[in-house]
Amino acid sequence: MIVETDGYIELVQYLTEQLDVFEEKVPASEQAPFTVREQLEESLSDSIMRVCQQHDMDKDVRLDIVREADAILYDLEEVLASVLNTHPSPRQQEFINEFTGLVKNLLDDRLQRKVAS
């Protein structure tokens, strides 16, 4: 659906260009009580649920979206492997939310194109 599109490839490239966001050191008092992995999973699943709620789709399309989410999470875990178990700073949390929002936008766009065709 989207993981093999130019848009997704550009999004992963954007992630790799922003890795310095995950290299910053902040005091423990500014870190979240959850890990980067937990935020990725939560934020991505929230985005996927919103996509499913906002679009009228059949069961097969929903299953495709779930498969896409698994592939996206796998890619994120590969790129961010060294920081998955760290606690994110506010800046890192903001970036994760922005990134998963962009994933949602790609899915929304793809679903709109499917409906239009």
From TrEMBL:
Pfam families: DUF3802. This is DUF3802 domain-containing protein. It comes from Aliidiomarina minuta.
